[in-house]
Predict the structure.
Amino acid sequence: MRNTRVTILLLAMAAIPACAAEIAETAEAPAAPTGPPLEVRFQPGEFVYLWENNGEGTPLELYTAVLQNVAVVNRTAGPISLDEMTLSALRDDEVVQTVTVDADALEAAAVHFYALQHQKVLETYDFHFQVSRYLKDVPLAGTRKLKPGEAVIVTQRALLFQSVPDTLRVSVVGRAEGDTFVSGSGTVRVVNHESPNSYGFPVSGRWLVAAAPSLHGHHRWASIQEFALDLVQLGEGGLSHRGEGTELQHYHAYGAAVLAVADGKVVAASDGMEESDSNLQQPDETDRAYFARTLELQQKLLAKGFAAVMGNHVSIEHANGEFSHYLHLKNGSVGVKVGDTVERGQHIGALGHSGNSTEPHLHFHLSDGASSGRGSAARGVRSARSAAAKIRWRKNEKKK
Ligand SMILES: [Zn+2]
């Protein structure tokens, strides 16, 4: 018997270091002609979206945010050894929380990402790490001792707040030659987004949200799909399939109608990608073996481009610059084309298993840019990431 499993689209990353310390920034750091000795870059830049955690329909007054990608670049003409990075959450210029990334963690990050770059993993998973967008032509250091122009990447820092901060600040300190103290810092805003649009649900009936935007889900770690949902249907015994689940037709969700969540215009529609039973977990296959096989398949798909990962899919542009995306649709089911106007509740395709899918499910997300649909999702549009926070789901009914 197997539990419901859904697409895994990330690499599990390090936990958050727990100790806290506040670092004073150095006003008297030696001024390089181009700015501070250590430059802090963010990707996505400008802001992070906050997620409000709810209990049974009630806000718990706990909020999470993920700082996706941060890089520190040595802007001086000599080597700099990084000593510590501090992530601070601020409200009205007051620090409400700090998390420290110590020298050992910085060293580990440098070693890790240097290896990933040389194994071409950063290139393959560019939708995730987005190095091409914020560190183009910047060499990564293999240690926390940065040569001139080199960078260290720190990713996927999850933060939990008891109140809503307005800013995240990343400060970094290190030592240049002669033990000269150097520093740098950067900030991004924290946005507690509430969509101005009203959305329906992309399927009708009773569904299990198999992967939600919590920190336990896999979507949260890639900004383009941070608040996505993976939807499946359960049947007898709490399983998503009948029998052994070795055929697509065994799955309760397979072929279900997928519905436009709001009025809009189709900006991407692709069909014709085949689905296969062969990438379902086999009855005699261990989780470990299946995970390895899935990862291999995922990398093959990524090598073909992001559209192959999405499978048959539809993207719709809605009011206020928001987009909805429906992935892994059934081959031959997509009933809309680019340029079509659709209404909320309109049947646009059928739930399927195309692309990077471990069992028939609907991957659905909203974004603040056309992040899916044209070539590589992560590179298409600046600031493209999910904006599904605080959507009030309503029954999906066509407008009268
Ligand atoms: Zn998904």
